[in-house]
């Protein structure tokens, strides 16, 4: 063999040896990956592939009729940690690397949050006690932006911060019982926050990313899978400023009269829109725990009561509408009246027999006089009128826990009930129901569905929940409605509260009431003092209703009169209502 051939053969053998060694290395590596370290490598790879996080959507605003914000969302932050990864931190200080103990890092964080460092350590310890490999513990939530920025600057690798949204109520307790509030999960719990949940709640988005073994997202791997969609803006019919004014007036009168609570409403006659619902006590949605549980809902919608004498205009209106009486129909009203069926009716204060017209019956708020006149109408016919007025039925407003009140069927009326239902006893209504009935009388006998919501607007321009157009339902003839209002005007001009109700230059119609309260047929010591009415009489624009539960310093409807008058004056001023240009007809109360 030549020297050249031998050299070629040696080179070939060398190449084959190198190739064999390389192949052996590959095989060894393959065995190491697929057999020796397979389980740990798979676990590591799965950890790197499984990262995802929620992109929280802001809850929509609640605004008043003018766009003033009643409830809104603000960015907040949630701070969590992986307890199993909590360890001292390596930090560079100049040319040196120092170690920061866990206790020191937690102390720095606690100082920003305003909490005890031991509280943070306890949350980590509790998680590890349950699971030594615990990868999650919530350290803080509802953290503000300033705190978030300071904590982020600490560069603590085992802290994870994500954005959430919190709820704020910039006007505090103004309309708080109507606006409602949310829970810790930002879900509606009461009021419009609850009933309009579908409008207000946004749709959360989703991010996916690769993460390291210690669950830290790898830079550049985050991808938004689904964008978050903010909730809609709920627009109410309420006027924030008017609601604030009413709330001050009602709260002041509740305090002055030592009443249990108070409610006042302003309703627009032509549209049925509620412009104000004020309650005292009122819940501050931003500090729910500061209000006793019984006052966190809306008593205007949820708490029925026997309305008493503010119900008398309804009975008078029925009689006029049915052609059975008019403003001048005469009656002799005794202090006590004993109908043939065995019932017993009496007026509030002893008096001699009074010769009253039906106008005078309303002026003097005579139970006996109205009972005698009311006998002209069969019970079945009166019951049908009551149903037409919406008594015993919830309003069309979608409000959580709304009460329908109580109207028993005629066949359940005992002898006493047949009479006392004429003047607001033996049945129950809510404040909202009474506002609706008075709106119907004021609107020439056409009762419109009450409105609290104007609509829900979404960021893409879509608008939902707008009230359906409605002509309303005729509950009385226009002539009967006008005559009823005329009789109520005599209460203001000639009734026993005339001095407290008269507003110079304006014709106002109203009726007072002191509703005794019964439970299981037993008379209670509690009562509701009320005033309800409309103005201006010649063309009613607004209905005002006021209710005070058990005022101690005025055990009569006189407790509600000052608030009613002041609200009427405020509405006149706010909406620029022109003075009346006609005079009251001067209907007589006696004959």
From TrEMBL:
Domain Penicillin-binding protein transpeptidase: start-end pairs: 262-568
InterPro entries: Beta-lactam/transpept (IPR050515), Beta-lactam/transpept-like (IPR012338), PBP_dimer (IPR005311), PBP_dimer_sf (IPR036138), PCN-bd_Tpept (IPR001460)
Biological process terms in GO annotation: cell wall organization
Keyword set, alphabetical order: Membrane
A GO CC term attached to the entry: plasma membrane
One Pfam match: Transpeptidase
Subcellular location, principal: membrane
GO function terms (MF aspect): penicillin binding
Domain Penicillin-binding protein dimerisation, chain residue ranges per copy: 55-212
Localisation per UniProt entry: Membrane
SUPFAM superfamilies, per database record: beta-lactamase/transpeptidase-like, Penicillin binding protein dimerisation domain
Protein family according to the UniProt entry: Belongs to the transpeptidase family.
Name under which the protein is recorded: Penicillin-binding protein 2
Taxonomic source organism: Mycetocola tolaasinivorans
Upper taxonomic lineage: Bacteria, Bacillati, Actinomycetota, Actinomycetes, Micrococcales
């Amino acid at each position: 063999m030549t020297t050249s051939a031998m050299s070629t053969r040696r080179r070939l053998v060398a190449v084959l040896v190198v190739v064999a060694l390389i192949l052996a290395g590959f095989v060894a590596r393959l065995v190491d990956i697929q057999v020796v370290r397979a389980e740990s490598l798979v676990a590591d790879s799965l950890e790197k592939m499984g990262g995802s996080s929620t992109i929280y959507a802001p809850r929509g605003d609640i605004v008043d009729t003018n766009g003033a914000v009643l409830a809104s969302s603000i960015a907040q932050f949630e701070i969590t940690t992986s307890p199993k990864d909590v360890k001292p931190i390596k930090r560079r200080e100049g040319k040196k690397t120092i170690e920061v103990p866990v206790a020191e890092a937690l102390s720095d964080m606690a100082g920003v949050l305003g909490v005890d460092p031991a509280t943070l350590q306890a949350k980590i310890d509790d998680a590890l006690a349950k699971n030594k490999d615990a990868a999650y513990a919530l350290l803080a939530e509802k953290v503000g932006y300033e705190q978030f920025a300071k904590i982020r600057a600490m560069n603590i690798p085992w802290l994870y911060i994500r954005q959430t949204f919190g709820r704020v109520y910039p006007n505090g307790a103004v309309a708080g019982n109507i606006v409602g509030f949310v829970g810790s999960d930002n879900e509606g719990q009461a009021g419009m926050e609850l009933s309009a949940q579908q409008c207000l709640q946004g749709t959360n988005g989703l991010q996916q990313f690769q993460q390291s073994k210690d669950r830290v997202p790898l830079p550049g791997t985050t991808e938004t899978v689904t964008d978050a969609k903010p909730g809609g803006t709920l627009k109410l019919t309420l006027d924030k400023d008017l609601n604030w004014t009413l709330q001050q007036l009602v709260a002041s009168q509740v305090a002055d009269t030592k009443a249990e609570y108070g409610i006042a409403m302003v309703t627009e006659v032509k549209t049925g829109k509620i412009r104000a619902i004020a309650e005292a006590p009122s819940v501050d949605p931003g500090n729910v725990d500061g209000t006793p549980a019984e006052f966190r809902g809306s008593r205007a919608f949820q708490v029925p009561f026997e309305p008493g004498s503010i119900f008398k205009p309804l009975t008078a209106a029925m009689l006029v509408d049915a052609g059975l009486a008019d403003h001048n129909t005469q009656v002799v009203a005794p202090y006590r009246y004993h109908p043939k069926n065995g019932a017993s009716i009496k007026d509030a204060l002893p008096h001699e027999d009074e010769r009253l017209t039906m106008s005078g019956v309303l002026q003097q708020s005579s139970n006996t006089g109205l009972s005698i006149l009311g006998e002209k109408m069969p019970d079945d016919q009166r019951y049908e009128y009551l149903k037409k007025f919406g008594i015993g039925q919830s309003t069309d407003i979608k409000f959580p826990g709304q009460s329908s009140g109580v109207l028993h069927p005629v066949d359940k009326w005992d002898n006493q009930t047949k009479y006392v239902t004429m003047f607001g006893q033996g049945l129950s209504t809510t404040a909202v129901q009474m506002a609706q009935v008075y709106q119907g009388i004021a609107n020439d006998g056409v009762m419109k569905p009450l409105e609290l919501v104007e609509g829900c607007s979404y960021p893409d321009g879509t608008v939902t929940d707008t009230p359906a157009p409605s002509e309303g339902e005729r509950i009385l003839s226009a002539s009967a409605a006008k005559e009823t209002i005329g009789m109520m005007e005599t209460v203001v001009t000639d009734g026993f509260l005339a001095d407290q109700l008269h507003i110079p230059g304006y014709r106002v119609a109203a009726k007072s009431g002191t509703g005794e309260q019964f439970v299981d047929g037993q008379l209670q010591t509690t009562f509701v003092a009320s005033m309800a009415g409309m103005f201006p009489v010649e063309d009613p624009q607004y209905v005002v209703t006021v209710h005070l539960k058990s005022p101690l310093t005025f055990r009569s409807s006189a407790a509600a009169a000052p608030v009613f008058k002041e609200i009427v004056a405020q509405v006149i001023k706010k909406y620029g209502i022109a003075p009346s240009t006609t005079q009251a007809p001067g209907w007589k109360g006696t004959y």
